[in-house]
Amino acid sequence: MSAMKRRPNILLDKADAFSTRIIKMQQYLCSEKKEFILSKQVLRSGTSICANLTESKNAQSSLDYLSKHNIALKEADETAYWLKKLHEGGYINEIEYNSMNGDCEELIKMLVSSVKTLKLKNGRPVGVL
Length: 129
Hints:
mainly alpha, 76% helix, 0% strand, elongated
């Protein structure tokens, strides 16, 4: 018996690829730069984006689905903060920062759009969860 095919989910695919990049960056920071604190923070927030989007696939309600997307957005914002601190601290160079942050900002834009759309579908003001 074949598994039911799901529609392609560009947001989830991008979040998953970003999560893998975050894991590899954290491994690099620990092994090459001997940086363990900030790298653990960015690992947690950066992988949480995709984890929440994955969890949303089995949401109990449309509001639960919205909540998971909103949490993913918060985690993406936090990840952007940690990437900035890693750059300012000299742990990642300008090219590395621009690459990682560019992907993170793309996810943030997609998540903002998703959350706004979900709020409108649920009859909620855009500024309120």
